[in-house]
Amino acid sequence: MADCLFCRIVRREIPAQIVLEDEQALVFKDVSPQAPTHVLVVPKRHLGSLSASTDADASLLGHLQRTAARFAEREGLTSFRLVTNNGRGAGQSVEHLHYHLLGGRAMQWPPG
Ligand code: 5GP
Ligand code: ZN
């Protein structure tokens, strides 16, 4: 998508600290980290949100979770939180599917 922020990061039109990449996924540091480790796991192909996905995206969605787990393993993170904010009411501010991977500190439950 031409004017989508995360699509622009995928195309390297906007700089980001990329920490992992493969054919389908990109992982980069959140610009406003909320934990010692805070990265965003995104599909390279534009998808607006989890709600915008279809059954045809099931393999991609699984791949994103595996990518998050691979990153955590590489970083030695045994405890971490993986979360997606779906929709404005849940706090989604960028309309390109992304999973926040947060780690390196104690987490509270429920999240605010
Ligand atoms: P959301 O609020 O949609 O769940 O998460 C969007 C996340 O993207 C926020 O945590 C925000 O800090 C991050 N973000 C917004 N703009 C940029 C940017 O230009 N670069 C990076 N690396 N992260 C961004
Ligand atoms: Zn996009």
How would you describe the overall organization of this protein?
- The protein is 21% helix and 22% strand.
- By secondary structure, the protein is an alpha+beta fold.
- It has one domain (5-103): HIT-like (HIT family, subunit A), CATH 3.30.428.10.
- The longest helix has 18 residues, at 58-75.
- It starts with a helix and ends in a 9-residue tail after the last strand.
- The mean pLDDT is 97.
- The structure holds guanosine-5'-monophosphate and zinc ion (ZN).
- Zinc ion (ZN) binds at residues 1, 4, 6-7, 46, 96.
Question: Which features would summarize this protein structure in a list?
Answer:
single chain; alpha+beta; HIT family, subunit A; five-stranded antiparallel sheet; binds guanosine-5'-monophosphate; binds zinc ion
Question: How are the SSEs ordered, and which strands pair?
Answer:
Elements: H1 5-10, E1 18-21, E2 25-29, E3 37-43, H2 58-75, E4 80-83, E5 99-103
Antiparallel strand pairs: 1-2, 2-3, 3-5, 4-5
The chain binds guanosine-5'-monophosphate (5GP) and zinc ion.
Zinc ion binds at residues 1, 4, 6-7, 46, 96.
Strand content: 15-25%
In CATH terms, the superfamily is: HIT-like
Number of domains: 1
Provide the residue-averaged pLDDT: 97
How many DSSP E strands? Answer: 5
- Label the structural class: alpha+beta
Helicity level:
10-25%
Helix segment tally: 2
SSE series:
HEEEHEE
Short description:
This protein is α+β, with helices and mostly antiparallel strands and 112 residues long.
